[in-house]
Amino acid sequence: MSYDETSKNTDLIIWIIRIYFLLAAIQGFLVIYLLLRIPVESGISAFFGFSIRRLAIAMPVAFASIGFIWVALKSIQDKRCVLNFTTRLEGWLNRKNNFNIIILLLIILTIGWSYFILLGYDVIEPFSRAYFVRLQPIAFWFVGLSIQSLIALAFINFGLNLNQIKPPNKIFRIATLLFGFFILLWLWIAWTRIGLEAESVGWNSLGSPILETQVLFAWIFAVALIFLSPSIQHVLERIPWPKKSTDPFTKFDILVSIFLWIVTIVVWNSIPLTSSWFISPPRAPNFEFYPNSDAILYDTTAQSALVGEGFKSWGTAYASRPMYAQFLGILHIIGGLEYEPIIFIQVAVFAIFPVLLYWIGRNLYNRLSGIIVAILITAREANAILLNNVITVSHSKLIMADFPTAIGVALFCVCMLAWLKNLKPQIYFPLVAGGILGIFMLIRPEVGIQLFVAGLVILIIFFRQPVRWLKSNLFLAIGLLLVLSPWIWRNWQIDHKIFIDQPNYRADLFAKRYSEDPEETSIKVEPGETYEEYNERMAEKALEFAQDQPDSIARFVISHYINSQIQTVLILPTSFRLIDSGIELLGHKSLLQFWEDCCSINGFIRRLPFWFKWDGILPHQSIIPIIINLFMIALGVSVSWHRNRTIGLLPAAFMVAHLLINAFVRNSGGRYILPVDWVSILYFSIGIAYFTIWGFKHFSTKEPSGLLIAETNRDTEDLKDERTSKNNSSQLITILLIAAALLLIGFSLPITEKMISPRYISELSPTQVMALIEQEGDTFDSDIQDSLESILTDNATIIQGRALYPRYYFANVGEPGEWRSFQPRPYRRVSFYLVGPQNIGIILPDNDIPDHFPHGSDVIVIGCYNDRYFDALGIIILNSTDQSVDEVLLRSSLDDVTCPLMNLD
Questions:
Q1: Are 677 and 470 a contacting pair, CB within 8 Å?
Q2: Assigned domain for 796 exists
Q3: Residue after which a domain boundary falls, among 165, 186, 209
Q4: CA distance 25 to 144
Q5: C-alpha to C-alpha distance for 423 and 715, rounded to whole angstroms
Q6: 137 & 204 share domain
Q7: Same domain, 620 and 658
Q8: Which residues contact 368 (CB under 8 A, 6 or more apart)?
Q9: What are the residues whose beta carbons fall under 8 Å from the beta carbon of 300, sequence distance 6 or more?
Q10: How does the average pLDDT of the chain come out, rounded?
Q11: pLDDT of 37-55, one tens digit each?
């Protein structure tokens, strides 16, 4: 550097020192002014009109400000002293990591005190607010000092060459650009209010969040693992293994997967069940939990198959979620008919989800990121179970299709990454991936959109290899069709139409959603209208709306998509509660209350508005956490892109596609985005892992090492040719075995329907029923027998089947949802759902609580068909062992009974 440049830098530093301390003094006096303007509370002792506490805060600021003025004046009088100071400062900053450490500390102070300021606007508890009001001027001062210190250090370290200030590497540069895009998009959404103002249809509130304490635990655990990583690797090298050549990396992956699976089972199953929209509370006579709403549909579909009537939903052969229904049927065979035993087994299966996310995080970056995302997703699911009776959520302990769909998308992603990241030529990878997609399309058909995403990614990767691209897509499609074709053929035999769950392709849903008034009468079935005519009319109605109002469709699609995308960020921590909770502890001095305020899930959602008719306005305390979350997500995406290029964006592409397909159906948020909202948690975890390792490398004297932080690289050698270690014959055998397995999975559904014989005969005559009663001899008195005989000689109908979810309701008590037999009614009654030759809800009015009516009982019901339910006059409960009569329930009054019965509602 020339003498002139050195002189210019010296003069610049002197001016920076003078301005720095002068501004610090001005800010200090402004803080004192603001402090002294705060009114004194009544009853507080004061000195010259000010409380002792306030003066205790103001006096140090005053002394510091006077000191800053003295330094500023001294810098004008004694230039040599300033030069000596700056020389020593530059020397200290040039020592290893000192500059980086002080910059990081100043950034943390700026963020921390900024959060304190914003939090103060939301605190309403009087004791805490008094502290925030008095400390807020100090917080402003610290923020100002931190910012001007950052600016001053930048000039001192770089001089006038501020172009040297840039992100430390390419990953941070990409992350900064992406973060800037996120902020601009956020500002645009805040300005236009698109995605913030609720739509009239399909607008769902936020699902279960992750707590800041849980993220802190995951991060501390990650830091501990970084220190222990070399020791862990050393231990794994000494552990005996069946295959001696197994390296410690593979051993670690297997052991961690098993450990995560076991811990997840224990954590999720340790949380007790509570009632919600999808679980009805225990009621007489059995006091058991039963499924409700959509969960009834899926469970009764499975129960219908178990009694030999095939997969039927709502009493029709058009089965909803048939693959999940088959899974439930298997659980019932293993665990019985009760709810809690099968849920225990279901959790044991669904606990594979954190393991799958571990492998995704491991493949996109390293094992540390996989462990963090597994911890966070386990915690998030535990929160969902805990919040079951507070907000409407879907989780692993419900009989719902959302969580298994999330497992399906994650499993498909694992398979695609295992293939594309290593770019192996084995063609069975896309075959398996297509089969996985087919399996989960039989749970939620919209998962099929991921086939197009996968095809696009394959096209980008194999753009210069058209033969390989064509072969990959062909085997994807073959795997898909092998699973779907048996079920589609089964449906074709029923209705001569190609469909998965509904022959109308949900035309009624589109007609409702593509309408300004979803409740309008024209969407309902008209008198005398056939099923085909109704479907055709609904399809024409939806198409007419799309042609007449494309602008409305564009508006609600964009709005619903943005709402879903916002919620994928809001599930991450949006508040840091320890600050104000700690201040409140000084007042109430209750550790239990402190725990509720600072660390509980219920305390978290109570202080934030996102779950209770949110108006789109962010609380002040959420601004800083959301900024941090967005940066970590941007950093995770950047790391994933830098390591894997297009493959690293595969989970993000899956998320965008799923959110879009839901937006086109006018759905957003809540449980509808559960299948993909883990993607934000994934990239957030990768960002945390990378930032932590980067911090160790730049601020620690010891370079981190070990298998935990070793980055997984993709092998690009196989991209140039398709040679494989296996010979063609063994590869062909593998492909045929996989194809046979996929076809067997597809055929398992129609085979199940054929294998299980009908449990109940289609019709029972009055003579058969009376003969069954008479076999009991003196068990039932003559009055009961006479009443039954009287009913049977009239025009009553006899149906039989398996009684599910029997419960007794008092007047005006019932369950929410569309199931007519369980809705509130103005009279006491016994209600249950019958599966058998007829699947229908049963209501027996005017009866006392049954002494004995087990869930899953075989029953014979006598009564009349009513509006979407069966109005019972008598119920014969049979013994499950020998089919003898256990109990007979009769309506209290059977005089002059004729069908149809008078409606009591």
A1: no
A2: yes
A3: 165
A4: 11
A5: 7
A6: no
A7: yes
A8: 222, 225, 226, 689, 692, 693, 708, 709
A9: 313, 804, 833, 835, 839
A10: 85
A11: 776 655 555 555 556 667 7
Q: Is 860 helix (H, G, I), strand (E, B) or coil?
A: strand
The enclosing H or E element of 876 equals strand 870-878
Detail the DSSP E strand segments found in 530-594.
none
Q: Which two tokens stand for residue 388?
A: 């079951």
**Dihedrals phi, psi of 762, to nearest 5 degrees:** -65, -35
CA distances to 164, 287, 307, 390 from 386, in Å: 50, 21, 34, 8
Task: Say if residue 110 is in the same domain as residue 190.
Answer: no
pLDDT of residue 68: 82
Count of domains observed in the chain: 3
Tally of residues, the chain: 905
pTM for the predicted model, two decimal places: 0.92
Both tokens of 755, joined, read 């294998």
Tell me, yes or no, whether 138 and 232 share the same domain. no
**β-pair partners for 876:** 860, 888
Lowest mean pLDDT, pick from 375-379, 404-408, 615-619, 650-654: 615-619
Decide which of 165, 197, 217 is a domain's last residue: 165
Residues 705 and 812 in one domain: no
| Dist. CA 211–CA 606, nearest whole Å | 13
Q: 541-548: long-range contacts at Cβ-Cβ below 8 A with a sequence spacing of 24 or more?
A: 541/511, 541/514, 541/515, 542/507, 542/510, 542/511, 542/513, 542/514, 545/514, 545/515, 546/514
Of the candidates 891, 809, 777, which has an alpha carbon nearest to the alpha carbon of residue 844? 891
In the chain, the amino acid numbered 171 is I
- What range does the domain containing 802 cover? 766-890
pLDDT for the residue 530: 67
Looking at the structure, tell me whether residues 202 and 144 fall in a common domain: no
Which residues partner with 843 through β-bridges? 831, 871
From CA 201, how far away is CA 193, in angstroms rounded? Answer: 17
Cβ count near 491 (within 10 Å) = 22
Q: Are residues 131 and 209 in the same domain?
A: no
Q: How many CB atoms lie within 10 A of CB 130?
A: 16
